[in-house]
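Aim 2 progress update. The chain analyzed this quarter is reproduced below.
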Amino acid sequence: EPKATVAETTAPATGENDFALGLTNGGTYSNTFVGIGCDLDDNWTYYSDEQIREMNGIATDMIDDEELLEMLEESEIVYDMLAVSSNGFDNININLENLGLVYGSVLSESGYVDVAIGPLEKVYADIDASVLSLEKGTIQFAGAEHYAINVHVTVNDNDLYQKIICLKAGNYMCNITISTSFADRTDEIAALFYSLD
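Predicted structure tokens:
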């Protein structure tokens, strides 16, 4: 039987603006705060709670789940899920960015993409990637149309494709980054997500 994750042992979201982490159970990921889920087959491995806590810079044995949720709610960016494919080329990374009260109330998914797309070129340059395309687009994702950033870069002469899908949840922006190498499989992987509503 799968071990309960942090999100299973913390209070579930009871309203639209109640911050909550996602949970994994077997091959299934779900996040009631954002309202999305996905089912991944045996070719995928989810990072454990401990690995996600480490990504968030939190010592796993120092605090209880309620304190953890409070700390994460105050963080600027919270890593929620990371899954890697056994092919070694595909991964899914989900984070929640705290936009604060002001930006959280006025910044739309489209506006967020407009702001985020500019600095990305430098991010890719910093890892010695050559940007072939970096474009704003839309995608049918988990039953609704959302804005996304479509990326095609080369790193060491290898193609890397990313789709960064943005979903607004309360005062947070959920960023689902799907990465594939050599061939663009981002839409195929995005289709694995569904709405929890």
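DSSP finds six helices and eleven strands in the chain. The CA atoms of residues 128 and 155 lie 7 Å apart. These observations will guide the mutagenesis experiments scheduled for the next reporting period.
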